[in-house]
Write a structure and sequence with these properties.
Length: 298
């Protein structure tokens, strides 16, 4: 039932969700591993944040970690990283299991492990486990497979979003990631393209052989970008300090389209105010929306 609720776009009934949460809290210790993971996924999709119940759920998973498959372990770690819990004992157990399975992690499993580590663990936790160098070697050992045209873009994109900061990649290592990811750009959807640009802004590297195909793909996808993705792209090119005129016009077109359809709240624009001003979009916004943004300013 939780999985079905998470898949639906309807708001879950509070009474039903409360009853399901109570059932999970009282019975999760007896769930098999797959049922635990499906429950974790259902709560994650619903944005469930009651810490007491989540703690009970994930601690029930603790003793079953060794019996999970590699894909189940990596996905369970990823779900834990999105739950908002801070349980050091469980985190250390996940890290230990990742270290033991690292030679076998590939594709989406490797990506999930890297993303989970970036959200939950500091280098001081990763280094004693040997995971900083271990993950670096595994990523570049798998880079040819991750960048192959036959592979989906999501695993390598997840690694690109998390690994450069987590593992302190050098400029040459970031360029190797970009070269591998370039082959995937034509097959990316709008959300993936905006995340790819955000990841590039985070590494603060203007590499035109990578950025120009990315800009071209974003220009073609401009009408499919969601409001939050448009604002993310505007902020990303601001951080990079580099944007081609065609992409600037495309982002301006997409921004004004969402503004006219009232899809962009003032709070979202406040967070991107420096970028809007630099790219010349601020003065194009309706006066009423600009006043709403200023009222939110501290």
């Amino acid at each position: 039932v939780l999985w079905s609720l998470g898949k639906s776009e309807c708001r879950a009934d509070e009474g039903l969700l409360s009853g399901l949460a109570h059932s999970v809290a009282t019975g999760c210790r007896h769930y098999p591993p797959v049922a635990l993971l499906v429950t974790c996924l259902g709560f994650a999709r619903l944005g469930f944040a009651q810490q007491v119940i989540l703690v009970e759920l994930y601690r029930s998973l603790y003793g079953k970690l060794p019996s999970l498959s590699d894909s189940q372990l990596a996905y369970g770690f990823f779900l834990f990283s999105t739950s908002g819990l801070r349980d050091e004992a469980l985190l250390r157990r996940f890290l230990y299991e990742c270290k033991q399975r690292l030679p076998r992690l590939r594709g989406q499993n490797l990506s999930n492990a890297v993303l989970a580590c970036s959200r939950t663990a500091t280098r001081s936790l990763l280094e004693p486990e040997g995971l900083v160098e271990g993950l670096r070697r595994r990523i570049f050992g798998q880079l040819e497979n991750l960048g192959a045209a036959s592979s989906p873009p999501a695993p390598l994109l997840g690694i690109y979003l998390a690994a450069p900061q987590l593992l302190a990649f050098t400029q040459d290592e970031n360029l190797r990631l970009m070269a591998a990811l370039t082959e995937h750009i034509p097959g990316m959807g709008p959300a993936e393209l905006s995340r790819c640009l955000l990841a590039t802004a985070r590494v603060e590297l203007v590499h035109k052989p990578f950025l120009l195909p990315l800009f071209h793909a974003l220009h073609k996808a401009r009408e499919q970008l969601q409001a939050s993705e448009v604002v993310s792209c505007i902020w990303s090119v601001h951080l990079l300090g580099f944007c081609k005129p065609k992409l600037r016009r495309s982002l301006g077109f997409a921004l004004m389209d969402h503004v006219q359809k009232r899809r962009i709240p003032a709070r979202m624009l406040l967070d991107a105010l420096p970028a809007l001003a630099e790219l010349g979009f601020w003065e194009r916004l309706p006066d009423s929306l600009r006043r709403s943004v200023w009222r939110l300013a501290p």
